[in-house]
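Sorry to interrupt, but I need a hand with the structure work. I would like you to pick a protein and set down its sequence and fold. Please put the record directly below this note.
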Amino acid sequence: MARMAGRRLLAAVPLLAAVTFGVFAIAAASPFDPARAYAGSAGLGARQDVLDQLRQNLGADRPFVARWWDWLGAALTGDLGDSAALRQPVADVIGERVGWSLLLCGTAFALAVVVGTALGVLAARRRGGPLDRAVTSLSYALEAAPPFWLGLLAIWFFAVRLGALPAGGLTDTGTDVATAGQVLTHLALPAGVLAVSQLPWFVLYVRQGVGDALAEDPVRGARARGLSERTVLLGHALRSGLLPVLTLVGSRVPELITGALLVETVFSWPGIASATVQAATSVDFPLLAALTVLATAAVLLGNLLSDLLYGLADPRVGWDG
């Protein structure tokens, strides 16, 4: 297991370097002008010589390969550069925001796994019954719903209509210090919406896995031995049926990140979404590269975690991958 993890981590190094190279190449080919984006409204009437000097100061007049190589060398020493869009070091931009994004994603993912597993087991217990049809139909409907639409619907119902939860932000209006109670209250809607957007996959996978396990000979044998239905369902069918679900841990990370960006934007959650949008619209090379590396690393770690969990749950799986 350690050797496999080590090989995966070593293989990730050139992949991450290639990803950052692609970011610089795409940004250089984009029609956006970093100098005008940095100058803001003042850049609309600025003289060409002023813009040229600003490009030189930002390093935007150099070939993108040279900019990428300088950034990569500095990043290896821990210096991620400065964000032209946010006027602060990239490391500070990420450090201030990534914790809130991790809190949102972690809470939503845990909710999706727990609730999805419970609903999947209940649906698989009586396949074809009213509960199974209702849960399956709802899952397919939610699967087609975009996260931003779910977020707007949740704001309209829970914040505007009922007034039960805040519509966005991290703290109440006029409050400078974020208390645990305020954070949890403001976290409820965005985490719930993000969890609902991931829920259908877990429900359908668990339903299929547990339903197939209930039809296997070992489970039939457990029932023939007189074991209770609860023991058969939770002790035999659920354990076998959850194995395919472990592969979702890695495969859902990209969509979880994408969904989190949309949900953070809708609910004004102070995560990395706003930084990502500003970096993209301002062609902020250092910040774009750092955020892309962070997202790619999260995907690679998610895939590694799912493989490790699957191997630990099923001893028949080898560690040669």
